[in-house]
């Protein structure tokens, strides 16, 4: 099921439901209105779809700032309150270094090098049954 979120003239942020997981792919800059709408839509979809995980793929993000770090942490916090885990996948080395330099610890967020690894962390096969953790 593919949901393109219309975000008040901003770029669309695709949110896909794959089994028990929402997959969000961020590309380029995330603007204030887009981020706020994304946070609300993700929380609503967690409740509506009863997913247990959220994977945020940031491999298309070249530059991160404190705003994006805060948005990621807030999505994870909301998801956690709604009984879903969040994993950020595809972080570039430069992005990781910038987050450390900004002093952002991103509480509640787990990370994975790839989307596939993120699904393994959540012990879920995309579109398939729950797998036992290794």
- Strand fraction equals 25-35%
Largest sheet, spatial ordering of strands = 1-2-3-4-5-6
List the secondary-structure elements in sequence, H or E: EEEHEHEHEH
Spans of at least 5 consecutive residues with low confidence: 1-10, 127-134
Strand segment count: 6
Proportion of helical residues: 25-40%
State the helix count: 4
Helix/strand/pairing category: alpha/beta
| Beginning-to-end CA distance, first to last residue | 28 Å
In terms of quaternary structure, the protein is single chain
Note the overall shape. globular
Q: Rounded to an integer, what's the Rg over CA atoms?
A: 14 Å
Arithmetic mean of pLDDT: 83
Largest sheet: 6 strands, mixed
Write the layout of secondary structure elements.
Blueprint: E1 2-5, E2 13-18, E3 21-27, H1 32-49, E4 53-60, H2 66-81, E5 85-89, H3 93-101, E6 109-112, H4 115-121
Parallel strand pairs: 3-4, 4-5, 5-6
Antiparallel strand pairs: 1-2, 2-3
Could you give a short description of this structure?
The chain contains four helices and six strands. It has helices at residues 32-49, 66-81, 93-101, 115-121, and strands spanning 2-5, 13-18, 21-27, 53-60, 85-89, 109-112.
Could you characterize what this model shows?
With 134 residues, the protein is an alpha/beta fold. It has a six-stranded mixed β-sheet with strand order 1-2-3-4-5-6. Strand 5, helix 3 and strand 6 form a beta-alpha-beta unit. Helix 1 packs parallel to helix 2.
